[in-house]
Design a protein that fits this description.
The protein has about 350 residues and is an alpha/beta fold. Among the domains are: about 120 residues; about 35 residues; about 40 residues, no CATH class. The strands form 2 sheets. An 8-stranded mixed sheet has the order 7-1-4-3-2-6-5-8. It has a two-stranded antiparallel ribbon with strand order 9-10. β3 and β4 form a beta hairpin. The longest helix has 24 residues.
Length: about 350
């Protein structure tokens, strides 16, 4: 009778089972603050579920409602006012055990990402957006994926793979051993030249950076090459004909040299004494060639000569068929005046 009266007296305020306080819950303190968390899917999370930080209960889930966009879930959390979290904290939906209850874990950003924690504090009325939330895979999802792997995956083909590998290796032990030795030697050589490879990659990186900095010049050069390449393409037939003609000329030149080799060697042998005499003449021939065309002779030519006359002796050899006068009846050779006059 007493129980019925108690229930009837509170029936006006009772809204559902989720409104009943649970024993052993987190201590919210005197001044808890509320945080709204937006999840893509809260699964079977229920109100009054725990809110934890480092696996320590610090609050509870107050309400769960559909988001304004109609696709996300908004969860309002009550957190103990003494719990200090950065303003960019993360929220994760976790499970206490394999078949345990769901709870919400709050954590600083550095726990799950490389983002620097905010210097501001997570305050009352703060919102943790969907990009800062996630959830762990469900038990059903894990076993569903495992069932797919076992039933339709490649597990059943492992025996076939093992059998085919045995067939390949049987009788080829020496070749496989040699192959593995070669791989080991290759790896050893690569390790020994690690510094050279690193240097080459650094040089390639610098070259790529240089080309990237000079992209406009390279593009201009390639653009300027386009007309020349088009001209070469248009004159391809003429170029091929020219090369074929050069090949024919080369064949004729080689044949000519081969046929005249003996005569050419004989001419060079005959020319050798003349060249030897010219070499023996030394500076006399160039000096004589400097004097002969300068008649009348200049002062540098007459330097060191005493007197007013310069005697010149010439030996004349008649051409074939020309007779010389008898001795004593020749044409007298008169001395020339040093000043260049005629006598």
């Amino acid at each position: 009778m007493t129980c019925c009266l108690a229930l009837s007296s509170c029936s006006g305020e009772f809204k559902g089972v989720y409104d009943l306080p649970l024993p052993g819950g987190a201590d919210l303190g005197d001044h808890p603050y509320r945080v709204t968390v937006r999840f893509a899917d809260v699964l079977d999370l229920v109100p009054q579920a725990a809110v934890k930080v480092d696996d320590v209960p610090v609050g509870r889930v107050e309400t769960i409602r559909l988001g304004a966009d109609g696709w996300t879930a908004e969860t309002v959390l009550e957190v103990n006012g003494d719990v200090v979290l950065p303003a960019n904290a993360l929220a994760r939906l976790r499970q206490s055990s394999l078949l345990g209850e769901k709870f919400v874990e709050l954590a600083p950003a550095t726990v799950s990402s490389t983002e620097t924690p905010s210097k501001d504090r997570l305050a009352d009325g703060a919102v943790i957006t969907q990009d800062r939330t996630n959830r762990n895979p469900e038990f059903e999802e894990i076993f569903g994926a495992l069932s797919l792997l076992l039933n339709g995956g490649g597990i059943g083909q492992l025996q076939t793979i093992d059998r085919e590998l045995s067939k390949v290796m049987t009788g080829n032990e020496d070749q496989i051993r040699s192959f593995l030795s070669g791989v080991d030697q290759l790896a050893t050589n690569l390790d020994a030249h690690r510094a050279d490879i690193t240097t080459a990659l650094d040089g390639l990186n610098r070259l790529a950076a240089t080309l990237a900095n000079r992209r406009e010049q390279v593009s201009g050069a390639l653009t300027d090459l386009t007309p020349g390449l088009k001209t070469l393409t248009d004159q391809r037939a003429q170029l091929v004909t020219m090369l074929q003609s050069l090949d024919d000329l080369s064949g004729v030149a080689v044949d000519t040299i081969n046929r005249s080799k003996a005569d050419l060697v004989a001419d060079l042998d005959a020319l050798a004494p003349i060249l030897r005499r010219l070499a023996d003449a030394g500076q006399d021939l160039p000096q004589a060639l400097e004097i002969l065309p300068t008649f009348p002779f200049t002062d540098p030519v007459l330097d060191g000569i005493k007197g007013d006359y310069l005697n010149v002796y010439a030996s004349i050899t008649p051409a074939p068929g020309v007779e010389l006068p008898p001795p004593g009846q020749g044409v007298p050779v008169l001395p020339l005046p040093a000043s260049g006059g005629t006598r």
